[in-house]
Amino acid sequence: MSKIGLIIKREYTTRIRKKSFIIMTILGPLLFAGLLFGTVWITLNDQQTYTVLISDPYGLVSEYRGEQDSTLVPRFPDQFKDNENVIYGFTEKTKKPEELKEGFYNIMIELDEITINDGKCNMYFDNFPSENIQGKLKNDLQESLERFRVVDSLKLDYEKYKRAKLDVSFAEININKLGEEDHTQERAVIGFVFAILIYMFIFMYGVQVMRGVLEEKTNRIVEVMISSVKPFQLMMGKVVGIGLVGLTQFLIWVILSAVLATFGLNYFESHLVNGAAVLENGAVVANGVNQAAMAQSLMNNEAINWIFLINWPLMVGMFIFFFIGGFLLYASLFAAIGAAVDSDSDTQQFMLPVTLPLVFSYIVSAMLITNPESPIGNFFSIFPLTSPITIMVKTAIGNISVLHLISAMAALIVAFLFFIWLGAKIYRVGILSYGKKVSYKDLWKWIRQKN
Amino acid sequence: MKYAIQAEGINKTYGKYQALTNVSIDIPEGKIFGLLGPNGAGKTTFIRILNQIIEPDNGLIKFYGNPLQRSHVEDIGYLPEERGLYKKMKVGEQCVYLAQMKGMKEKDALAELKMWFEKFEIQEWWNKTVEDLSKGMAQKIQFITTVVHKPKLLILDEPFSGFDPINAELIRNEMLRLRDEGTTIVLSTHDMGSVESLCDNIALINRSHVILSGSVAEVRDSFRTKTYTLKFEGTLLEFTIALGARFELMSNELINDIHTVTVRIKPEFKLNDLLKQIIPVVDILSAEENVPSMHDIFVQSVLSFNEAQA
User: Fold this and answer.
1) CB contact under 8 A, A227 and B97
2) Mean pLDDT of A148-170
3) Judged by CB atoms within 8 Å, which residues 83-102 of B form the interface with A?
4) I want to staple B231 with a disulfide (CB 3.0 to 4.6 A). Which of A39, A158, B237, B285 is the partner?
5) Does A20 touch chain B (CB under 8 A)?
């Protein structure tokens, strides 16, 4: 075996055998799946029950049950239905918000005479209700107030109004792909998941490269090593070895996740039907990863078809290419940092310029979910320091030309060759420099220094 | 004479800092060569150039007669001053790995290492991790990994630092044995005692220049002052008269009726001439030449070079 092969083998086997690797490899997908399904589950199973008092002095939405009965009920019996999370009550008095603390109710909604005109009302709460709950409350109020306006003020027949009423929604169709719905946002979310994976991978294993180099330096083994191999071989052996560890871990994750996902989907198919009612009413959660929409889509085979709109062979190919390219680029920078400093605590000052573009590309990727055609996204999916992460979202959406892809790949190849060269220049001087706090000026000197 | 290393006109600069200036050093084959010099003089730079860790700006290095090239790293064993091991790795595994780095096959490395582990009686360390070893134990392992591939040239930078006297003796004996078997050894050290007892030749580097080089005997010879220390019983007056003009009394001391004196002899005379003069007048107890120690030579050379530069 060649010497660089031996170095790769050592880096790989010592890490694969570590307890922490084995634990992370098994726990990783469990944690990830737990996180994903956990959030969906929590959204669907909001355990808390809210008792909601509607203060309605003008009788907009409530009325007495009968002449002798002083109990207030909804004006229209099919509205303000209680469920396991919300129990309604009505009053015609205006209550002081403080009274809420002692009483049965924990939310009070105050309708006043203007509410019927502008739809605005105060909601007093002790615990802020979830988006789902708020969605149901708004929905119930809106329908009821609407009915009041239609029937009482406009003297129209409500059934006729309902038939006349129309909800507008877009079926998104790209003119370049006529005949199919686009589902851009859902696809962007899938792309974002891939982007996060690359982001995590670069960070976790990039830092491992840095630690590994630093360890060799502080252990003082490095001078013995480079009396046998060239510094470049030692650096690349470490980068490749650790990269392979990451790929191994990733592959195991994919397999374990596939198994877990099969179980998970079965679970959701049998349990989600209950949650459907909540979702119907619940407002769509607009926090980047659109869990409600995803869960809804998962339940319904027709809705899940958009997954196949993604060009999967291209997606997987791009993923592997940018996964490896991005790692090589950043790992050589992390290796240079590890070589330049004497201790873990000194790494901070050099970490910032390396992590900044990484974090930035994460932000741009998240932005692309809501604004897929943004020109900023076009630029950052070619710019090699951000492309490995950002391009995954663009590829998933599919609004990317072949020229764009090729430019991004070419730019990445040029960039990682450049950064490996740059990293190696710093590395080869850094590993033999002890005891002096290194500045950016020193790094520049090292880059220009002959061997 | 055959040379393991012939370095000619080596210059090396780091930015504006001149680490080596026109350094020429010849290291004879099969000898122990002392590379001496104060801290920061350029010794480590020279050693790193021999190991091809760094390249000289110019100059030529021959390794056993051929220009130094990459494949020669497998013929060199290097124990740096700043040395260490992979802490989390098992001792045996690590030794095999480092031997493979020097081009050994795994099978050969195992056989050779077994021999060394038996010799040093450390077989039970094979499966320990390095972090469980004491400093002295780790140093033995480092020495083994430096010599396991039977290098033609062994470069040892302060090999004795951190060793207890027993282990230092062990290493010293191994060095002598390896030399007798034909290995050339470069010993870089501040310990002048080990230079005197081990080295056949030396070079002294100071402020990037070689300021002194040659065989230990030659170097010492050139620093001889022709002063002798004599002990005798008798009177100092008679002794002084007997010296005459050819011999100069440098110092004297009287303890328990025994005089200890230092006498300088003019270059054209010998100790015998002195003895002829004084034997009739005093009872001589001992007579000994004051040979300069390597320590004195080191200090004297460095100081006078620095003065000349200033």
Assistant:
1) no
2) 83
3) 83-89, 97-98, 100-102
4) B285
5) no
Q: What is the number of structural domains in chain B? A: 2
CA B51 to chain A, closest CA, distance in angstroms equals: 6
| Same-domain status, B43 and B146 | yes
Confidence of residue A277 (pLDDT cuts 50, 70, 90): very low
Per-residue pLDDT tens for B202-218?
999 999 999 999 999 89
8 Å CB contact between B102 and A228: yes
* Predicted ipTM of the assembly: 0.85
Q: Is the pLDDT of residue A298 over 80?
A: no
B132: amino acid identity, one letter: D
Residue A10 contacts B, CB cutoff 8 Å = yes
- Give residue A116's pLDDT: 84
Structure tokens at B107: 């099978």
Residues within 8 A of A (CB atoms), B 135-174 only: 142, 145
pLDDT at A177: 62
Closest partner residue to B51 (CB to CB) among A3, A14, A227 is: A227
Domain assignment present for residue B96? The answer is: yes
Higher-confidence residue: A265 or B172?
B172
Q: Does the beta-carbon distance from A451 to B55 stay under 8 Å? A: yes
Bridge partners (DSSP) of residue B3 are B28
Cβ atoms B145, B117 nearer than 8 A: no
Q: Two tokens at A400? A: 């990317």
Same-domain status, B67 and B104: yes
pLDDT in tens, B152-165: 999 999 998 878 88
Contact residues on chain A for B15, CB-CB shorter than 8 A: 445, 449
Asked whether residue B71 falls in the same domain as residue B34, the answer is yes
Give the tens place of pLDDT for each residue, B30-70.
999 999 999 889 999 999 999 999 999 999 999 999 999 99
A324 and A416 share one domain: yes
* Cβ atoms < 10 Å from Cβ of A437: 9
Count of CB atoms within 10 A of residue B245's CB?
6
Q: Which residue of A has its CA nearest to B87?
A: A219
* Chain B residue nearest residue A14, CA to CA: B89
* Residue A3 sits at the chain B interface (C-beta within 8 Å): yes
Burial (CB count within 10 angstroms: exposed 0-12, middle 13-18, buried 19+), residue A65: exposed
Residue B309 is assigned to a structural domain of this protein: no
CATH number of the domain residue B60 falls in: 3.40.50.300
Domain boundary among B190, B221, B252: B221
With beta carbons under 8 A apart, name residues in chain A contacting B78: 223-224, 227
The β-bridge relationship of strands A50-55 and A107-110 is parallel
Chain B CB contacts of A225 under 8 Å are: 101
Out of B14, B86, B100, whose CB is closest to A219?
Answer: B86
Structure confidence at residue A444 (pLDDT): 87
Let me know: does A393 contact A377? Beta carbons within 8 Å. Answer: yes
Could you report the per-residue pLDDT of A70-86, keeping only the tens digit for each? 788 888 878 888 887 88
Lowest mean pLDDT among A162-171, A317-326, B256-265: A162-171
Domain contains A313: yes
Taking Cα atoms as reference points, which of A177, A146, A178 lies closest to residue A162? Answer: A146
| Same domain for A190 and A54 | no
Residue range(s) defining the domain that contains residue A229: 3-43+183-448
Q: Which residues pair with B17 in a beta bridge?
A: B14
Beta strands in B39-183 (DSSP E): 58-63, 66-67, 76-79, 153-157
Partners of residue B251 on adjacent β-strands: B262
Max mean pLDDT range (A89-98, A340-349, B258-267): B258-267
Q: Is the same domain home to B214 and B238?
A: no
**Do A111 and A243 lie in a common domain?**
no
Domain of B47, in residue numbers:
3-221
Per the structure, how many domains does chain A have?
A: 2
Q: Does residue B263 register a pLDDT over 90?
A: yes
Instruction: Place B111 in a pLDDT band, splitting at 50, 70 and 90.
Output: very high
User: How far off is chain B from A418, nearest CA to CA, in Å?
Assistant: 22
A172 inside domain: no
| pLDDT (mean) for A443-449 | 85
pTM for the whole structure: 0.76
